[in-house]
Design brief:
The complex is a heterodimer of chains A (252) and B (279). In chain A, strand 5 (161-165), helix 6 and strand 6 form a beta-alpha-beta unit. Chain A has helices at residues 40-48, 71-74, 96-107, 111-124, 143-157, 173-190, 201-207, 225-230, 235-248; strands at residues 29-33, 63-64, 67-68, 79-82, 161-165, 193-198, 210-215, 218-224. In chain A, helix 3 (96-107) packs parallel to helix 5 (143-157), helix 4 (111-124) packs across helix 5 and helix 5 runs parallel beside helix 6. Chain A is α/β, with parallel strands linked by helices and 252 residues long. With 279 residues, chain B is mainly α. Chain B has one domain: MetI-like fold (Orthogonal Bundle). Chain B is built from ten helices and no strands. Chain B has helices at 6-33, 65-101, 103-117, 121-132, 136-163, 166-173, 178-214, 226-233, 242-269, 271-278. In chain B, helix 1 (6-33) packs across helix 2. Chain B is elongated. The model of chain B is unreliable at 1-8 and 274-279 (pLDDT under 50). Classes of the chains: A alpha/beta (252), B mainly alpha (279). Chain B: The chain crosses the membrane at residues 12-34, 77-101, 122-149, 237-258. Chain B: Pfam families: BPD_transp_1. Chain B: It is found in: Cell membrane. Chain B: GO terms for molecular function: dipeptide transmembrane transporter activity. Chain B: It is a multi-pass membrane protein.
């Protein structure tokens, strides 16, 4: 069983994330929920060693299969990432094929086997029908297609874990549903460990096995998804649920 | 409206482009085009008036002025080309390194740039020549040393801005090495503004080469060079003003043409600037 943990990340003077421990298993979907600014994305950035300027990691550990791992060593090998805004996550001057080439270079795949792996990954992400996609530039693709391309790149890296930071926030409702279905299918078929960061409890209900709730930089509750919806323990969780029900006019 | 002015401006751009292309052609094919050997002295025909054999006449040593102007294009523009190539390479490596690595490396490299930026370029170039001695190679070295820091600073600024893009973050998370990220995602954003800047600087650098040569610090006679030609003609300014006018005209036209071209290039490659002008 592969796991990783993290704890106590912070910034000079103002700690932003601390006492946050997450455990992600292969073949499981863990949702990290919380209000905007609660530190969800920052915790993921710290895990991968890509903290934004002005923040730094002051402590904490990452364990991969029980052994200490350097954040930089996880990138593209143990952990792949799907970012929130597919439009800006691709270099506008490079084709989708160029981006795939970059991932293949990290994976050390070249030539015909590389192309075969690339086509297989894009087919698995639902982009296999169109033979022209490697020559497409990001502006020629829809947001949903780009998000599929990003998932394909994640698959191509062969990483056993996937972090999806609000993967559906920038998409329309139809594309949202399809992307969530795709992620669920990949977890089931390939045994990926998926950490999905979201503030949408609808996404959680649809996808997650377990849920971690974050508030003000701390994990305040971790529970199986069903239990969290039926008996929320932490006040932050109850507030999120109440807000969700009020928004969607579901009686408590 | 900015668009209203565009047609008239593009006409001047076409003229500037044609002129600049003409100078580049002269620099490239000069030896094939010169009607006479630019170094051939013919004291019997000193100060010859323009005629069919010597369309612009001859100078105080009977050398053909047109041939010397054409040969001078290669000296001046060749020196400028070398300067720009070295300055751009230095700027890209120092600015790229500082911007990509950041932290202490950035601080040290930028303080080094500051040392070069505190002294006005022409004064610094004069100082370098004082230390290195005169000659074409030393002039090139002096102009490089007095200008590279500008390029390094600009490249660093562009790199810092491009580094914050989401696709750079995505590439980092995908595990791409830093050099690959620089080459694939940062460099393509740095090159266009840098190309515009370098084109704008051709005229500026040409003035430096000609100016230093005019002062006797750069290219040495009898090598044909526009600044050298003006200096050669200085004693005869009151009697034969055309000897000063021809090389002066060449310098002025070259600077104007490349400046206009660089301006147009910047307008095309720097949309933010154009948008700002429209407000």
């Amino acid at each position: 069983m592969e796991t990783w943990r993290e704890a106590r990340r912070g910034r000079e003077a103002v700690p932003l994330v601390r006492d946050a421990t997450l455990e992600l298993r292969a073949g499981e979907v863990l949702a990290l929920v919380g209000a905007s600014g609660s530190g969800k994305s920052l915790a993921c950035a710290a895990l991968l060693g890509v903290l934004p300027p002005g923040t730094r990691r002051t402590g904490g550990r990452v364990l991969l299969d029980g052994a200490d791992a350097e954040p930089a060593s996880l990138r593209g090998r143990a952990v792949a990432c799907v970012l929130q805004a597919p439009r800006t996550a691709f270099n506008p001057l490079r084709t989708i094929g160029d981006h795939a080439g970059e991932t293949l270079a990290v994976a050390g795949l070249r030539g015909a086997p590389g192309r075969a792996a690339r086509d297989a990954a894009f087919a698995a992400a639902g982009l296999g029908d169109d033979p022209r996609w490697p020559d497409l530039y990001p502006f020629q693709m829809s947001g949903g297609m780009l998000q599929r391309a990003m998932i394909a790149l994640a698959l191509l890296s062969g990483a056993p874990f996937l972090i999806a930071d609000e993967p559906t926030t920038d998409l329309d409702l139809v594309a949202q549903g399809r992307i969530l279905d795709l992620l669920a299918r990949l977890v089931r078929e390939r045994g990926l460990g998926l950490l999905i960061v979201t503030h949408d409890l609808g996404v959680v209900a649809r996808l997650a096995d377990r849920v971690a709730v974050m508030e003000a930089g701390r994990i305040v509750e971790t529970a199986p998804a069903a239990a969290l919806f039926s008996e929320p323990a932490a006040p932050a969780t109850r507030a999120l649920l109440a807000a969700h029900r009020a928004l969607h006019e579901i009686p408590a | 409206m900015t668009t209203a002015g565009l047609p008239a401006r593009s006409g001047s751009v076409a003229a500037a482009g044609a002129l600049a292309a003409g100078f580049v052609l002269l620099a490239l094919a000069g030896p094939l085009l010169v009607p006479h050997d630019p170094l051939a002295v013919d004291l019997a025909h000193r100060f010859a008036a323009p005629d069919l054999a010597h369309p612009l006449g001859t100078d105080h040593l009977g050398r053909d002025i047109l041939s010397r102007l054409i040969a001078g294009a290669r000296t001046t523009l060749g020196a400028v080309l070398v300067v720009l190539a070295v300055v751009v390479a230095l700027g890209l490596s120092v600015g790229g390194l500082a911007g990509m690595v950041g932290g202490r490396v950035d601080a040290v490299l930028m303080r080094l740039c500051d040392v070069f930026l505190t002294v006005p370029t022409f004064v610094l170039a004069l100082f370098m020549i004082g230390a290195l001695g005169t000659g074409l190679v030393n002039v090139v070295a002096a102009i490089v040393l007095s200008h590279w820091a500008w390029y390094a600073r600009i490249v660093r600024g562009l790199v810092l801005e491009l580094k914050t893009r989401d696709y750079v973050l995505a590439a980092r998370i995908a595990g791409a090495p830093r050099l690959a990220i620089f080459a694939e995602h940062v460099l393509p954003g740095v090159v266009p503004p840098l190309a515009a800047l370098a084109t704008l600087d051709i005229g500026h650098m040409a003035l430096h080469v000609a100016g230093l040569s005019f002062l006797g610090l750069g290219v040495q006679p009898p090598t044909p060079e526009w600044g050298v030609m003006i200096n050669d003609a200085r004693p005869f300014f009151w009697t034969r003003p055309l000897l000063v006018v021809w090389p002066g005209l060449a310098i002025a036209l070259a600077v104007l043409a490349f400046n206009r071209l660089g301006d147009a290039l910047r307008d095309r490659l720097d949309p933010a600037l154009v948008a700002g002008r429209g407000l």
